[in-house]
Specification:
Order of helices and strands of chain B: HHEEHEHHEEEHEHEHEHEHEHH
Distance between the termini of chain A: 102 Å
Number of domains of chain B: 1
Strand content of chain B: 15-25%
Radius of gyration of chain B: 22 Å
CATH topology of the largest domain in chain A: Rossmann fold
Strand order of the largest sheet of chain B: 2-1-3-4-8-7-11-9-10
Largest sheet of chain B: 9 strands, mixed
Number of domains of chain A: 5
CATH topology of chain B: Rossmann fold
Number of strands of chain A: 25
Radius of gyration of chain A: 40 Å
CATH class of the largest domain in chain A: Alpha Beta
CATH superfamily of chain B: Thiamin diphosphate (ThDP)-binding fold, Pyr/PP domains
Number of helices of chain B: 12
Shape of chain B: globular
Oligomer: heterodimer
CATH class of chain B: Alpha Beta
Structural class of chain B: alpha/beta
Helix content of chain A: 40-55%
Distance between the termini of chain B: 72 Å
Bound molecules: thiamine diphosphate, iron/sulfur cluster, magnesium ion
């Protein structure tokens, strides 16, 4: 306890540097040691830049540049030396594109690729690298997929990716809808056409003439043809009411404005004025939805009526009142699923308080409204009454809160996860109900003036670090994926989900160039350490003062109060010169990290990892099994008894009573042919004795003899006065 | 209420079809004919599956068995001798929404219709085929068929057939694309029903050979199996047909046969002693031709016109002088 007032402890508890050689890390460009390898991202093959593809024809609509190139290499690179050359060239070009994008160039994949090609060719061989071969360049260029826009990671990426995915889903919906609409229209027109061909106008001389065509028109006398045909009786003209109903459905289908009409003359696409579905606030989206509702109802109704008409299943007595009363109150998510979904993109800048109430309304509406809630500041400073500052994680709150609503698809992720999670994004967009995508962009609020003087850390790194540090764990809740949490809730998009904090190997050298490596954890504290605003919560400790009372923050958080006493948590950081430092951490930040850890543990439990219920149930079950092995044996006995009782289903009566083994009857008609009152077929068309008094014992015996499967048992006669009984009973013997 | 509008609208019409709804004209088969048992099983299936009669079609060739469509109150097509399958394929191609059944005989399928049968197996279109095998031409009154027992004296073979019969199940199993091959007998009704039911639920061409008694021309032909249950072999499997417990009492000869095992299926098919009954082979992965050929666009008048114009543009027509 004699250390308690050391400068390190003092800093830990008060955040004040009160002596020793502790120093502020604020302006020295410190960053967590584990990030030391990520100086120039353009040198790395990772998830960004992304290529957003249009009109994929089934191909994925979002791919990383790196995957695009790898796929080309897998598919078109020959083996051996030549393949190796192609590989090298392609990877050089890929890197050149990466650099172009990093430097702010924009464009399609083929444009940027071409630019990278000419850049490399202009210095061909000049910088000591091997010369590029025109032939090889052409092979690669030809293999590049078309229609891709390249985007790098910045604060607009979440919105870009989301609206691109939304568009893709939308186009697919539009294609299906238009196919369906065309099909319904065509079939309805066929009904009307069939009708008009039976009408008087169809037998009009002119109509007949145009049907024959010009080549042979002189061969016919259309007037007499019309006279003859006109007298023919054509049954089945459409009732007036049905004709009008079909007409009205057709015009509703034609007038719809939910999707652009794709079918024009000769199948050419014709884009018409359609409505917008992308909004940046909740209220206007809801308002638009409300205004369009009556049109949706009539479209859905018209399509249903069309379907019934086509199948000749529209019954006026039943369906007229049904459709008259059918209004928006009855509309279901399934009915709306074929229509466009709405996309609302919310940014931090929008007034969060006002939007929150609307957002809850949107999400609990059950409507197909998709919300991107982009978070630009995940570590929020909360002022509390005492004037102290404490930390909270804001990002998780929204998504976790939405978990309480029913039928809402939820994805929480950081922008760095967007590519890995893009299938989930598409799933959320196709989910029939609302969806919330809570995405942390990697920003850290408005940059302070001092911070502006230090070089900015790439946004991507901060976003990735948010996932790694559990500040923004990835999770998906997909109500459409199954009936239970096990299938709906996934946290496996997080690194090392079984751990509280992921650990990574970290290698370094001492001043004698001796190499070391150790496993270190990446925690919420490391994430906060990337944020210039919180530099004051950390203090550097000169190497000369390092001691055993300093423990890594991740270890410190596991200590109870007594063991923690006297110890001080630190994390490893590097400065601009790549020198390694231990940096001690203020207590309140450790407190916040514990909160974050707890939140992650809760999520992880929901995702079925290290679940406390499961743990308890398992322990109970184990105990149970050890206690009573006999019970389990008894259980399987039960099952066997069940099978027995099923096979007892058919019980033979005594041999005096006549009967048929009905389940074995082959419906061969023999017995019913002999007497169709005595023998009848049941609901399965199998024979039984319906009325013994409807015939004679003789007929019963004859039937037994005719029955090829020998299942009629005549028993004893019921009328003792029937002639020849003795002989008949002898014949019956072998069937009883 | 939580139901999409289309479903509500249809529910309003919901009607229960009793078995009588599927009965067509009164069968004119001889009393004792096994065809009756097959008809009863099929009518039971339609009732149990509540198939909409207007969405169901039975297609046949020519023969006693091929009179089947007349006895069903559904759509039907009583076709040409041996040509049931191509007709059924045409129907399935244009109307994949219909339930298509084919009823054919041993003469219809294995004589005059053999080529169609083999290729229908190969095309694997989704339909249920019931091949009534009585080992004789019944309708034309007693001529030997390819499945007649060797030595059978008939009108066309007065001194007895010389050749061994073909085995329709083995032949079917020889076609690589075959996806469902089963054998049933008309005299075990529950098993017959269960096999036809499995065939109906299989997506693809389900071929069921049914041994069928013709008391008129081949009385006693199957007696050794009809009269002696121990000469029957019932194939049991979760992926094929599960033998009902009450049947297991009478027919004690059971084999656990996995229908994905084609080699074992071939061995089983090659023997009649004991007579195997059940699903011999089933492969759910085999694609259906109608799916492979599914049009990717709608044939609207516009589309048809433009396709025809394109085709006609390749020719020059000289008008008659
Ligand atoms: C092209 C043609 N050839 C021959 C016939 C005569 N024909 C009618 S039915 C039949 C054989 C039917 O045998 P099968 O298919 O076994 O039917 P079954 O009557 O036994 O049920 C023949 C050869 C015909 N109708 N058409
Ligand atoms: S004779 Fe036998 S098999 Fe034929 S219908 Fe009657 S009971 Fe059924
Ligand atoms: S001839 Fe044979 S197959 Fe034809 S109906 Fe009569 S019994 Fe049946
Ligand atoms: Mg026959």
């Amino acid at each position: 306890m004699n250390q308690i007032h050391s400068p390190m402890s003092t800093f830990h508890f008060t955040g004040q540097i009160s002596g020793g050689d502790l120093f502020e890390i604020g302006r020295r460009g410190f960053q967590p040691a584990l990030l030391s390898g990520y100086g120039d991202l353009s040198k790395l093959r990772y998830d960004f830049p992304l290529v957003l593809f249009k009109e994929g024809n089934g191909a994925p609509c979002i791919r990383s540049l790196c995957d695009v190139v790898s796929e080309i290499l897998n598919e078109s690179a020959p083996t051996g030396m030549e393949g190796e050359r192609l590989r090298k060239s392609a990877l050089r070009l890929e890197e050149a594109v990466r650099v172009l994008v990093r430097d702010g160039n924009k464009g399609s994949l083929s444009e940027l690729w071409q630019q990278a090609e000419s850049n490399l060719l202009s210095q061909n061989g000049g910088d000591g690298t091997p010369k590029l071969d025109e032939e090889i360049l052409k092979t690669i260029r030809d293999a590049l997929p078309e229609n891709g826009e390249v985007i790098d990671y910045d604060e607009d990426t979440p919105e870009k990716v989301m609206s691109h995915a939304w568009n893709t889903v939308q186009e697919e919906k539009a294609r299906k809808f238009s196919l369906r609409l065309d099909e319904l229209t065509l079939k309805l027109m066929n009904i009307l056409k069939g009708d008009s061909m039976k009408s008087a106008t169809a037998f009009d001389p002119d109509a007949l003439k145009s049907a024959v065509g010009s080549s042979y028109e002189s061969a016919f006398d259309f007037n007499s043809m019309s006279d003859i045909l006109g007298t023919a009786f054509v049954p089945g003209a459409l009732p007036e009411k049905r004709w009008r109903r079909i007409q009205s459905v057709l015009s509703t289908l034609k007038a719809q404005k939910f999707f652009p009409s794709m079918s024009g003359k000769n199948g050419k696409k014709r884009r018409e004025n359609t409505q917008t579905y992308i909004f940046d606030h909740c209220a206007p989206a809801m308002e638009a939805f409300r205004l369009r509702l009556p049109k949706m109802v009539s479209l859905v109704k018209a399509m249903t009526i069309a379907q019934l008409e086509i199948e000749s299943r529209y019954r006026e007595a039943t369906h007229d009142p049904f459709f008259r009363n059918y209004d928006e109150r009855y509309l279901e998510a399934d009915d709306l699923a074929m229509l466009p979904a709405y996309l609302i993109c919310l940014r931090n800048s929008t007034d969060a308080k006002a939007e929150k109430a609307d957002l809850i309304e949107v999400l609990s509406s059950g409507l197909p409204i998709k919300v991107l809630a982009q978070n630009d500041d995940i570590v929020e400073q909360l002022s509390i009454a005492s004037g102290k500052l404490s930390f909270g994680v804001r990002g998780s709150q929204l998504a976790s809160m939405a978990l309480g609503l029913n039928d809402v698809f939820i994805l929480q992720a950081s922008g760095a996860d967007l590519y890995r999670m893009h299938q989930s994004i598409l799933n959320g967009l196709t989910h029939r109900g609302p969806a919330l995508f809570s995405v942390y962009s990697g920003q850290s609020g408005k940059r302070t003036r001092t911070a502006k003087n230090t070089p900015e850390k790439p946004l991507y790194l901060r976003a990735a670090a948010a996932t790694d540090s559990r500040a923004c764990p990835v999770f998906v809740y997909d109500p459409g994926a199954g009936d239970d949490w096990e299938s709906r809730f996934l946290v496996d998009g997080n690194p090392q989900p079984e751990r509280d904090w992921p650990v990574y190997e970290f290698g370094y050298e001492d001043k004698d160039m001796q190499r070391f490596s150790e496993m270190i954890a990446f925690t919420f504290v490391d994430f906060v350490a990337m944020d210039d605003r919180y530099g004051k919560r950390f203090a550097g400790v000169p190497r000369s003062e390092w001691n055993d009372l300093m423990v890594p923050a991740s270890t410190f958080m596991e200590l109870d109060d007594t063991t923690a006493a006297g110890k001080v948590p630190y994390i490893l950081m590097i400065d601009e010169n790549n020198d390694l430092h231990r940096v001690i951490v203020e207590a309140r930040l450790i407190q916040a990290a514990r909160g974050c850890q707890e939140m992650w543990q809760n999520l992880r439990e929901l995702g079925g990892i290290d679940n406390s219920y499961a743990r308890k149930a398992l322990a109970a079950e184990k105990e149970n099994r050890e206690a009573q092995p006999e019970q389990i044996a008894a259980l399987s006995d039960d099952v066997e008894t069940d099978v027995e009782s099923v096979s007892e289903e058919f019980t033979a009566p005594s041999s005096d009573e006549p009967y048929i083994e009905t389940p074995r009857c082959t419906t061969c008609e023999e017995c019913v042919e002999i007497n169709n009152k005595m023998f009848l077929y049941d609901d399965n068309k199998q024979a039984y004795i319906a009325d013994l008094n409807a015939g004679t014992y003789k007929q019963l015996v004859q039937a037994a003899e005719s029955c090829q499967v020998a299942i009629i048992h005549p028993g004893k006669p019921i009328n003792p006065n029937e002639p020849n009984l003795k002989e008949l009973m002898a014949r019956a013997e072998s069937f009883n | 209420m939580s139901m999409p509008i289309a479903e509500c609208a249809l529910r309003l019409l919901e009607e229960e079809h009793p078995i009588d709804d599927y009965k067509g004209r009164v069968p004119r088969w001889c009393t004792g004919c096994g065809d009756n048992a097959i008809l009863a099983a099929v009518q039971r299936l339609c009732r149990d599956e509540q198939l909409a009669p207007e969405k169901t079609v039975f297609v046949s060739g020519i023969g006693c068995s091929s009179r089947f469509p007349h006895y069903m109150n559904t759509y039907g097509f009583h076709g040409l001798h041996g040509r049931a399958m191509p007709v059924a394929q045409g129907i399935k191609m244009r109307r994949p929404d219909l339930h298509v059944f084919v009823v054919t005989g041993d003469g219809d399928c294995c004589s005059i219709g053999t080529a169609h049968w083999i290729h229908a197996l190969r095309y694997n279109m989704n339909m249920t085929v019931l091949m009534h095998d009585n080992g004789i031409y019944g309708l034309t009154k007693n001529q030997a068929s390819p499945t007649s027992p060797q030595g059978l004296k008939s009108k066309t073979t007065p001194s007895g057939t010389l050749l061994e019969p073909i085995n329709p199940v083995s032949v079917s199993l020889g076609i690589r694309n075959a996806s469902f091959v089963a054998q049933a007998v008309d005299w075990i009704p529950d098993m017959l029903y269960d096999i036809i039911e499995a065939a109906f639920h299989h997506k693809g061409f389900s071929f069921v050979r049914i041994l069928q008694r013709c008391p008129e021309f081949l009385p006693g032909r199957f007696d050794e199996w009809v009269k002696d249950p121990s000469r029957m072999l019932l194939l049991n499997h979760d992926d094929g047909v599960k033998v009902r417990p009450e049947l297991g009492k009478v027919y004690q000869n059971l084999e656990q046969h996995d229908p994905s095992d084609r080699n074992r299926a071939r061995e089983i098919a090659s023997t009649y002693h004991p007579m195997p009954v059940g699903v011999l082979y089933r492969n759910q992965e085999m694609p259906c031709y109608e799916d492979l050929r599914k049009p990717d666009r709608l044939y609207t008048p516009d589309v048809i016109k433009s396709v025809l114009e394109k085709e006609f543009d390749q020719f020059t027509i000289h008008p008659a002088a």
